[in-house]
Amino acid sequence: MAAAMATTMAVSVAPSSVALRSTVSSSSSSSSSSGAASFAPLRLGESSSSGFSSCALRSFGVQELSRPCYAYGLSARGGAKRDFLLTVRAVANPVEVNRGFEEMIAGTTRKYYMLGGKGGVGKTSLAASLAVKFANSGHPTLVVSTDPAHSLSDSFAQDLSGGTIMPVDGVDLPLYAMEINPEQAREEFRASVSKDGGTGVKDFMDSVGLGGWVGELSELKLGELLDTPPPGLDEAMAISKVVQFMQAPEYSKFTRIIFDTAPTGHTLRLLSLPDFLDASIGKILKLKKKIQSAASAIKSVFGQGDGRDKATDKLEALKERMIMVREIFRNKETTEFVIVTIPTVMAISESSRLKSSLEKEGVPVKRLIVNQVLPPSNADCKFCAVKRKDQKRAMDMVSGDVNLKSLEVIQSPLFDLEIRGVPALKFMGDLVWR
Ligand SMILES: Nc1ncnc2c1ncn2[C@@H]1O[C@H](COP(=O)(O)OP(=O)(O)OP(=O)(O)O)[C@@H](O)[C@H]1O
Question: Which SUPFAM superfamilies match (predicted)?
Answer without folding.
Answer: P-loop containing nucleoside triphosphate hydrolases
